[in-house]
Amino acid sequence: MAPVRPILLEPRKRPRQARAAATVDAIFEATIQVLLAVGPNRLTTTRVAERAGVSVGSLYQYFPHKQALFYALNERYLDIVAGKIEAACRAAHAASIERMVEDLVTTYWEAKTERADVTRALYRSVVEIDNAPLIEAFSRRVDAATTVMFASSPDAVFDDLETVNLTLLTAIFGTVRSVFERDLPVGEAAAVHRQLVLMCRAYLNAVRCDDRSAGEGAVPRCGADPSTLGAHTAPWMPT
Predict the structure, then answer these.
(1) Apex CA 181: angle with CA 80 and CA 27, to 5°?
(2) Which residue range or ranges hold the HTH tetR-type domain (predicted)?
(3) Rounded distance, CA 45 to CA 54, Å?
(4) Closest CA relative to residue 73, chosen from 114, 117, 24
(5) Sign of torsion over alpha carbons 9, 12, 13, 15
(6) Per-residue pLDDT tens over the stretch 131-140
(7) Is the pLDDT of residue 216 over 90?
(8) CA 166, 79, 151, 227: dihedral to nearest 10 degrees?
(9) Are the CB atoms for 204 and 101 separated by under 8 Å?
(10) pLDDT for the residue 22
(11) 8 A C-beta contact, residue 45 and residue 63
C-alpha cells in the first residue's frame, strides 16, 4: 500500500522520459548540496535551481515549493533503503540467526553511510515536512521483510516475533541515527557497528525459544537460561 501523500506535497508531475529523469536527479543532488551548505531554512528553490543548472521554471514543473521537493527526496531515499533491506532479507532466508543479524545490521548501516552527506541532509530536511506517511510505509516494508526472514530461521523460534522484531529494528535504527547526530569519527562509528551486531545477536539469543531441532511435541523454553545469566553476572553483583 502506497503512503498517503499530503496534498500540498504532491509533485506537479513525474518524469517519464530519460531526459526528464536526469533533470530531477540533478535537482535532487543540488538539493542535498544546498541543504548541507546553508540548511533547510535558508534553502530556496532559486538556489537549488542555480546549483542544478536548470531554470526555476523547470524546477517548478515538478515541485511547487521546497517542501514538496524535500518530501520527494525523502521518499526516493527511503524507497532505496527499504529495497536494500528487502533484498538482504530474501538472501538470508533460512540462514542462521547469526547471519541474519549480521546481514540486517550491515545492510542498513551501509545504506545509511554509503553517502553520509545524503543521510545528514535528509535528517536536516525533515524539520520542514510531515514525513509520517513515508516512515509508516518504510516501516511496513521493513517489518514485513524482517519478520518473514526471522520466521524462516532453522535454529530459533520466538514466542512473540512481532515484538522481538520491533525491538530489534528500533535498536538498530536508533543506534545508526545517533552515530550521525553525534557525528562520530570513522573509527568510533566502525566500533559501534561491530558492537551493535554483538548486541543484537545477544538479544535474539536471550529471547529465542528452543531451536526447531528439539522435535515435534517438545515443550519450547523461551528466554535465556537463568543459571547461565547468573554465572555471568555473579562476579559483578554486590555482596
Answers:
(1) 45
(2) 21-81
(3) 11
(4) 24
(5) negative
(6) 899 999 999 9
(7) no
(8) -40
(9) yes
(10) 93
(11) yes
50-73 pLDDT, tens digit per residue, is: 999 999 999 999 999 999 999 999
Residue type at 171? Answer: A
3-state SS assignment for residue 154: coil
In the block, cell 531451536 appears at: 211
- Cβ–Cβ under 8 Å, residues 165 and 113: no
Which domains are present in the chain? Answer: 21-64 (1.10.10.60), 67-207 (1.10.357)
- Name, in order, each residue with C-beta under 8 angstroms of 136's C-beta and a sequence gap of 6 or more: 3
CB 86 within 8 A of CB 141: yes
Which of 23, 43, 29, 6 is closest to 77 using CA atoms?
29
Mean pLDDT of the chain, nearest integer: 86
d(CA 101, CA 106): 8
pLDDT in tens, 2-43: 554 554 555 555 656 788 899 999 999 999 999 999 999 999
